[in-house]
Amino acid sequence: MTTKTPDYGKVGERLLLNYIEATASQNPGKPAVHQLLIPEDDDSHEPRIVTLNYQQLVNLINKLCWKLHKGGLTSQASVAYASLTPYFTYGL
Question: Which superkingdom heads the taxonomic lineage of this protein's source (predicted)?
Answer without folding.
Answer: Eukaryota
